[in-house]
Amino acid sequence: MTEQSTTSSSSLSSPVSALDRAEGHQRSESARIWKRFRRYKPGMAGGIIVVILVFIAIFAPLIAPYSPTEKVGRRGTAPSSEFLLGNDEIGRDVLSRLIYGTRVALIVGIGAMSIALTIGVAIGAMAGFFGNKVDLALSRLIDTLMAFPLLALLITLAALFSPSLFNVVIVIGVTVWASYARVVRADIMSLRERDFVLAARSIGVGNARIIVRHMLPNVVGPIIVLASLDVGSIIILESALSFLGLGIQPPTPSWGGMLAAGRSLMRNAPHIAVAPGIAITITVLAFNLLGDGLRDALDPRQRD
């Protein structure tokens, strides 16, 4: 009787202990990833800057000293104690417009990246999993998109729609997904003949569930790294469109629009263009450093 009760209690506790071991393994793996990320100091610096930028974007109304759209001083006034970064070509505070421009840059960067990831992961997963004619058709679509010069394609699409923040996010998102599709396709093709996929198929698991629950979690690492590296590139694309007059329209503050407005005043009021130029440089550099840090942290070949 005692042996039976012991056996039954151990059989009941074994699933719980297995779950505890799995949770412990996940925690230890997360701790190793965080340890590797902290070890890369430039990546930590980039992450801190990104957090600061997000904070500025969220609390822009509380941080900005003036309204970003109202005239508060003389046109082209140089930086002073009252206006730390001076005034722009019509007398608006450059610092306030720079702060609100952070919100626009992050909305475009993160929003367009989300759209690109959704499209790229879906198409790449289907091409890699089903292969044959599906892979051939989707691969030709990816190759066709990547054959076009990206900026020229963006300008063409942006010119077809009325310039606005929403349209800029959509246009950039639907044109930069091809690189994600290629990465996901290659990884899915390497996974589809693995034992765990074959086992799932043998017990009747559907294709959609196999892709979403068993295969995509194995490609999350490379996709996160690629996305973090490309957010900076998307911010540059938005700035380029706004600089050309096809992106965010005045009086909405945009770093690219501020650059365009200040280019004709570089001799007399260089601060109008220098400030957003520095902001773009710092933001892009921060996301690139963060991406490098995540790449090292998520690489299983790295030593702890």
CATH architecture classification: Orthogonal Bundle
Domain tally: 1
Mean of all residue-level pLDDT scores: 84
How large is the share of residues in beta strands?
under 5%
Overall 3D shape: elongated
Helix and strand sequence: HHHHHHHHHHHHH
| Number of helical stretches of at least 4 residues | 13
| Residue windows where pLDDT falls under 50 for at least 5 positions | 1-16
Instruction: Please give the largest β-sheet.
Output: none
Structural class designation: mainly alpha
How large, in whole angstroms, is the Cα Rg? 25 Å
Strand segment tally: 0
Q: Which homologous superfamily in CATH is the superfamily?
A: MetI-like
Query: What is the CATH topology assignment?
Result: MetI-like fold
- Fraction of residues in helix: over 70%
N-to-C terminal Cα separation, in Å? Answer: 49 Å
CATH class group: Mainly Alpha
Can you characterise this structure?
- With about 300 residues, this protein is mainly alpha-helical.
- It is built from 13 helices and no strands.
- It has one domain: MetI-like (MetI-like fold), CATH 1.10.3720.
- It is about 75% helix and about 0% strand.
- Helix 11 packs antiparallel against helix 13.
- The N terminus is likely disordered.
Considering the chains and any ligands shown, give keywords for the structure.
304 residues, MetI-like fold
Describe this structure in a few short sentences.
This protein is an all-alpha fold and 304 residues long. The protein contains 13 helices and no strands.
